[in-house]
Amino acid sequence: MIAEAPLTRPREKKARGGRGDRIYHVLIKAIVGVVLAIFAGVFTVVVFGAWPAVKRFGPGFLIHTGWDPVHLVFGALPFIVGTILVAFGAMFLAGGIGLMTAVCITELLPRWLQGPVTYLIELLAFIPSVVYGLFGLLVLAPFLQETVEVWIMEHLGPHFEVFNGAPYGVGYMSAILILAIMLLPLIVTLSREALVLVPRDVREGGYALGLQKWDVVWGIIVPYARNGIVGSLVLALGRALGETIAVAMTIGGGYSLPKTVMDQGYTLASVIANEFNEVSSDMYLSALIYCGLILLVITVVVNVLAYFLVRRLSGAHGFKA
Amino acid sequence: MASKHKTSSRTGNWRKWRGVLGFGLTGVATLISLGALFSILGYLIHQGIGAINWNFIVREPAAVGEAGGGIAPSLLGTLILVSISMVVGIPLGIGVGIYLSEIAGGTRFASVARIAINTFIGVPSIIMGIFVYFILVKPTNTFSAIAGGLALGIIMIPIIARTTEDVLRLVPKSIREAGLAIGAPKWRVTFDLVLPAARAGVITGGILAVARVAGETAPLILTALGNEYYPTSLFKPIDEITLRILKYARGPYDVWHQQAYGAALILVFGVALGSLLLRLSTRDHDALSR
Amino acid sequence: MEVRDTDILMSDQSAVSLDQAYKLRVNGLNFYYGSFQALHDISVNAEKNRITAFIGPSGCGKSTFLRTLNRMHEETPEARVEGEVLLDGESVFDREISELRRSVGMVFQRSTPFPKSIFENIAYGLRIRGVDSSLISGLVEQSLKRANLWEEVKDKLKKSASGLSGGQQQRLCIARALAVNPEVLLLDEPCSALDPIGTSKIEELLLEIKESCTIVIVTHNMQQAARVSDYTGFFLSGKLIEFNNTKSIFETPSSKLTEDYITGRFG
Ligand SMILES: Nc1ncnc2c1ncn2[C@@H]1O[C@H](COP(=O)(O)OP(=O)(O)OP(=O)(O)O)[C@@H](O)[C@H]1O
Ligand SMILES: [Mg+2]
Fold first, then answer.
1. pLDDT tens digits, residue range B255-279?
2. Rounded to an integer, what distance in angstroms lies between the CA atom of residue B278 and that of residue B200?
3. Which residue, by CA, sits nearest to atom 2 of ligand 1?
4. Atom number, ligand 1, closest to the C-alpha of residue C33
5. Fold observed for domain B57-289
6. ipTM of this model?
7. Which atom number of ligand 1 is nearest to the Cα of residue C56?
């Protein structure tokens, strides 16, 4: 039937849109081209900047410790470990608290309170990183130093190696706590959206079975919203891995693998921010960019993952992060 | 099934208590979340309000460690950097949003572009700093306002692109068809009918993106650098409010700390104002989908 | 089953005279949404200055058919057309698209006023056409009068069009289509969202404008087709089952399927 269609003609050019439309299409496509070229350029430039270090240190850079700008010996393992520890530490805290907060907002709070509480928590998302860093550096770190860390050192230190550190204030513990606070609004907002999307009849079906409210919430509603919740957690993880300035201000700085929760160290992002203006040689700069390249690859992978997870939940577009 | 109804009162009790415990924990979590918000905001206001006065806003920084002085150059620099970023980010971002919503539809290229956009929203901003450092700062041998603005602009592009795409899609298809049906070319349908109908949402996205980049610090360390003076040229290093906060927070002087709080308070206030506008204008664009 | 032009014109005629009698001619039209074929080999003509109606149950392809007439289907990415659609003997697929759509206007089921003022809703199409701005307000008035809307809106031209009633909005859309002086007006269930008064106003209006315009209307409402149209076609599952002058279709349908539909036995 399709084969024998003598009457279809190839569209002639003039049958498509007029001149205005052609200009419009060319213009918009040019913009898209420029933007995609910028994106591609970002990758290229980072690879280019990291290239001297990549050539010199190879993949061993990822598994070696040692950061010596004088003798030009570099290994990013401490920063990779630092990035993972800080990100997952913060995710552990913020994930639990954030998810429970979202459940509380949607399932427990009366309707008139839901809006204001949500708004207040969203407000947290509008506070710039540097302000969290400021708070972490000047308020949280000294507070931890004088109270919690002293207590930990005295009481837990003798028994557990991970607590056997000196109370510096700034360090992993401060960085993790500050980052956790920063991640809260993102996790609360996105999980709340996922929970709100659970259809009414799913909820009512649970109650119709005679289940208690908590069993419905925990056994039916949360599992139903699972994809959205996981999506929000993965998005937050992406943010956590890449957070720069707040971590740079609170983690203290250090080039070796952490041994205790109170140690000082660096993440991939924060080492760049803190050391960039101190670089003394091209190879040092390149080693920092190599760290950037590792970070870029990690965050791209995590974000692509998040994109597909979130899209599966909410159709073609995902929701706002 | 039937056996379920014969739960003993002990398990029934446990179930009840489990609920109380569970919801209790969620309540505690909510209090922690709100507590974090209020302690940060409260502390900021408490410490910062004292630093803010007229001089703080109109003066240059005082000599190192001395009292007095202000952050006027940083405020001005922020304004300049954000303006440059808008020049870069708004047209490119809106253009991509229009492409995704109005032209590309469901093609394979569109989905690649869409993934690229969503991925780039999540790329750490310091990476954009590295990019601009290599293409602008190193070749010209100087940190500059242009470089900083460009880095911020690039960060803006995917944010604006995505919100634009989303709000344009909320415009009913029937408006586009009605436009085309009276013989309007596509570009006029987009610019005369679709964009105006989505105006509130597009503006909202713009505010969101501006608020986001106004709080960026990391890429500016690699591009704008910061300094102590009023900006004199777009091709020289320029100060910015978050760079100023960073410097003062890290300094050893109490005066600096106080001024850091003051500057942070101004920044948060500005950005929160943006969020308020956002909230007000999203009401409009909710109405639009009907 | 389907009825060729010759059945109506009765004698053998050359293509040229067919083009004179018929504003629109459709020949062997097949329509696909991806792999789904929505229209099967449709051939039908619409006579100049007459109202041609198409009826049929939901999903039978009426809108799809109507939309191919001014190539609105091209806005659906997966849509594909085979066959001929001729406007005054010239294939619509060879025309410049915006210019085609000015000649072949369209009014949709749900009124779609632009998010602009009443005045601008009509002026917009004129501006697009490059009509001199000094003429615009006169033409707006004239179109509103043609659409029997002028008296109702003349005092609130600057107000937003969304404040009008459903029927007024629909007449505004008709006025908007008329403003650019189309040769053909396509209407896709223009009255389905209206009350009987709104409906009868539109029907009166159609009978007036057919003096200057060829009208093709799709409707769910068989009484409406019987009241206003000169010719009626009956669609079922993407096939044009029967096409004839309206009187014959409703009084002596030649197909059992048509008869079942118009007597309400299904659909
Ligand atoms: N965009 C599309 N993609 C795929 N199939 C479509 C699309 N639009 C319509 N169809 C299908 O084509 C067939 C004809 O649809 P059409 O809208 O033309 O019907 P209709 O006769 O106008 O119905 P109604 O009276 O409900 O408006 C239907 O089966 C419909 O499901
Ligand atoms: Mg239809």
1. 999 999 999 999 998 888 876 776 6
2. 9
3. C33
4. 4
5. MetI-like fold (1.10.3720)
6. 0.89
7. 21
